[in-house]
Design goal:
The complex is a heterodimer of chains A (about 350) and B (about 375). Chain A is of the alpha/beta class and about 350 residues long. Helix content of chain A is about 30%, strand content about 20%. Chain A has two domains: about 10-235, P-loop containing nucleotide triphosphate hydrolases (Rossmann fold), CATH 3.40.50; about 240-350, no CATH class. In chain A, the strands form two sheets. In chain A, strands 6-7-8-3-9-10-12-11 form an eight-stranded mixed beta sheet, with helices on both faces. With about 375 residues, chain B is α/β, with parallel strands linked by helices. In chain B, the strands form three sheets. Chain B has an eight-stranded mixed beta sheet with strand order 6-7-8-3-9-10-13-12, sandwiched between helices. A four-stranded antiparallel beta sheet of chain B has the order 2-1-4-5. A two-stranded antiparallel sheet of chain B has the order 11-14. The termini of chain B are far apart. Classes of the chains: A alpha/beta (about 350), B alpha/beta (about 375).
Chain lengths: ~350, ~375
């Protein structure tokens, strides 16, 4: 896309949880992506794919003990380039709120219930921008106004429970953009909201990205949200990105069987009644470890013996028509000329009776 | 005759205040005059956002919430007037599948016991009258237990689980499997009507699709009737023959799925549909989005006139804020003639005679992206 260095380059990020007596869990297993100013990058996947852990690792919000974070996340800051995974806690506190911001799924539990909204917003302004008193309150009211909260001066004195769900999420976004961060991470920001409110919030995020040039990392399970908002999309499965593509090619011509399965699972509003859904069979419990082969193989209809010979490498989607940036992690991609594909067979790992 | 017929159903919850003297100071009008009918063997989808009363309506059909006013006719009988014992018996024919599969299964009961409970409560299964004659009490009981177990296993197999599940506990299953168990629990009584309250919203998309497919297969095999309650318009459209849209306690529009999607007439339906993201970038870039201003008004103090007029982009002077529109047939549209809408100006809106005012809608975005 651009020749300049990206705002954030995440390279081979891995997060391993150790628990006494339970061995280790590789929640994130070598994920790489880049974020650029004024663009939206999506991380998509189902529960347990590692998308939230990725964001927590970037924000330095994982606990110190029992977690090993590997790889690098180079961010371009005014005072030079830094690796987010290696900066000191003190430095991270300065960065969070000023350069990095995060919006969480549940706006009620992300706000302090016993502190008025105004205090929570001005706290950030005084911490990072040194604003005090009336000036801070004025700025806070401006911020609330900017995210579309009517009557902001009154709202400043209210507590989180007095606001509706959409309003709370707006307040959180106001706090996130208070210091004009370069990078914003939104972890399922609309999942707890009704669709009409979701549409309002997505519109707000879209405006922030185009007007402020913020780089947005959008984490969601909803491919519909992704289709409307993201420029580039990473589909995660069991801690690895299985497909990365600009949004056009990803939806028009998905290569990885998991992406195809996800798209086939979603009932579409513009499809007639009873149009069959073609979901992925089984559940994530059927996975095998990436070290042994493709984790998705036990649920895959295109599975061959080749899939079990170590982790499949990332390869470019074949053909020139797809443009740059479309890569996937499948030895037997969907709809592409490849080795002779045998008839789909049912692997033993997914026993029939334990469906769903 | 329709299997389920609801007439002018109202469910109001009192708001109480006071420590010594308990006074009722108002009512939350969760369901405020809904009429609808569900045909045998069909699926009726009820859609709406949180707080619109859809769940309360579903629960009221089963009398899990007391009915304030109105009739619920099930197979000709009015459930609203039944005494508790007759209602309890009636529930063998009306079953419910809940949203949260873990919360609705007792964690200390194994699956066998969960599934058997309904059969035992309703005394279903066991030898027939003639067979029972000449059998001792112990023999009769053994035969009954045997028959009930057979039914339970059959129900489990129908939902894609095996008899191995009987001895296991809810926490040992994944979310999708738990929801299958919830469905099996409803199925085992061989009900006529299953009310599914958000049956898939707690599940991941791929699992969600598996469960939706299962519900559809079961309907084909067993001729079940569903009342599906969900907030996800796409899910409802996928499974339903007829879709009803609720807003603040009342139905604002009702039509077959195709008609509702093809010609949504009520302003709320239109904005609701325009808010649903479609997993297709080309559609996303070109479709019109109607962003509603503000939030849902409080059902304890609903606005006068049309309930939607406070947020409606098509609002007209006078009539909308004073006169509450009835659910009436939509005129002048080709179709099955079952399209009903509660809007004074639905026809004018459809024909484009009335345009949304820009200051009413927060913004109408065309081809954003």
């Amino acid at each position: 896309m651009t020749t300049s260095t990206p705002l954030l380059a995440v390279d081979e990020l891995s997060v391993v949880f150790h628990r006494k007596g339970q061995g280790e869990t590789r929640a994130v297993d070598g994920v790489s992506f880049t974020l650029e100013e004024g663009r939206v990058t999506g991380l998509v996947g189902e529960s347990g794919c590692g998308k939230s852990v990725t964001s927590l690792a970037l924000m330095g919000l994982l606990p110190d003990r029992g977690v090993k974070v590997g790889g690098s996340a180079l961010i371009r800051l005014p005072d030079g380039e830094q690796d987010l995974l290696k900066v000191s806690q003190r430095r991270m506190r300065d960065l969070r709120g000023s350069q990095l911001a995060m919006i969480f799924q549940d706006p009620l539990s992300s706000l302090n219930p016993v502190v008025p909204i105004g205090v929570q917003v001005t706290e950030i302004l005084s911490r990072h921008r040194g604003m005090r008193g009336a000036a801070a309150r004025r700025e806070a009211a401006d911020l609330l106004q900017r995210v579309g909260i009517p009557d902001p001066t009154r709202r400043l004195g209210e507590y989180p429970h007095q606001l509706s769900g959409g309003m709370r999420q707006r307040a959180l976004i106001a706090m996130a953009v208070a210091c004009r961060p370069k990078l914003m991470i939104a972890d399922e920001p609309t999942t707890a909201l009704d669709v009409t409110i979701q549409a309002q919030i997505l519109e707000l995020l879209r405006d922030l990205v185009t007007e402020e040039g913020t780089a947005l990392l959008m984490i969601t399970h909803d491919l519909g949200v992704v289709a409307g908002l993201c420029d580039e999309i990473n589909v995660l499965y069991a801690g690895k990105a299985v497909e990365t593509a600009p949004r056009g090619p990803l939806f028009a011509d998905p290569a990885h069987p998991y992406t195809v399965g996800l798209l086939g699972s979603i009932p579409r509003l513009d499809a007639p009644r009873g149009e069959p859904l073609t979901p992925v069979r089984g559940s994530v419990n059927d996975n095998i470890a990436w070290a042994d082969g493709c984790a998705f193989a036990p649920r895959c209809d295109h599975y061959t013996m080749e899939c079990l010979q170590g982790p499949p490498p990332l390869v470019g989607a074949s053909g020139d028509e797809e443009g740059p940036g479309h890569i996937h992690r499948c030895v037997n991609p969907v709809g592409r000329a490849g080795p002779d594909r045998p008839e789909p067979e049912t692997p033993a790992a997914a026993s029939e009776e334990e469906r769903g | 005759m329709s299997l389920l017929e609801i007439r002018d159903l109202k469910v109001h919850f009192p708001i109480r205040r006071g420590v010594v003297v308990d006074r009722t100071i108002g009512h939350v009008r969760a369901v405020d005059g809904v009429s609808l009918s569900v045909e045998r063997g069909r699926t009726y989808g009820l859609v709406g956002e949180s707080g619109c009363g859809k769940t309360t309506l579903g629960r009221a059909v089963l009398r899990l919430n007391e009915i304030t006013h109105g009739e619920v006719r099930f197979d000709g009988r009015d459930l609203a007037g039944l005494d508790p014992e007759s209602m309890r018996r009636e529930r063998a024919n009306l079953q419910m599948v809940f949203q949260d599969p873990l919360g609705s299964l007792n964690p200390r009961q194994n699956i066998g016991s969960i599934l058997l409970e309904g059969l035992q409560t309703h005394g279903i299964g066991g030898p027939s009258e003639e067979e029972a004659e000449g059998l001792g009490r112990r023999q009769r009981r053994a035969r009954t237990a045997q028959d009930q177990r057979r039914r339970v296993v059959a129900a489990l197999e129908r939902v894609g689980l095996s008899a191995k599940a009987l001895q296991r506990y809810p926490h040992e299953f994944s979310g999708g499997q738990r929801q299958r168990i919830g469905i099996a629990r409803a199925l085992v009584l061989e009900p006529d009507l299953i009310i599914c309250d958000e049956p898939v919203s707690a599940l991941d998309v791929s699992i969600q699709a598996q469960v939706l497919n299962l519900l559809e297969e079961l309907q084909e095999e067993l001729g079940l009737t569903y009342l599906v309650i969900a907030h996800d318009l796409a899910v409802v459209r996928h499974v339903s023959d007829v879709v009803g849209v609720m807003y603040l306690g009342s139905l604002v529009e009702e039509a077959t799925g195709d008609e509702l999607y093809g010609t949504p007439a009520h302003p709320y339906t239109r904005s609701l549909m325009s808010a649903v993201p479609v997993p297709d970038p080309t559609v996303e870039d070109t479709r019109e989005r109607i962003l509603l201003a503000g939030d849902l008004p409080s059902p304890a103090d609903p606005p006068p006139g049309c309930r939607f007029h406070t947020r409606c982009p098509w609002r007209q002077e006078e009539r909308c804020d004073t006169e509450r529109p009835e659910l009436r047939p939509l005129h002048g549209v080709q179709g099955s003639g079952t399209h009903r809408v509660a809007c004074h100006y639905a026809e004018q809106i459809l024909s484009g005679q009335l345009r949304p005012s820009a200051d009413q809608a927060e913004r109408i975005v065309r081809g954003a992206g």
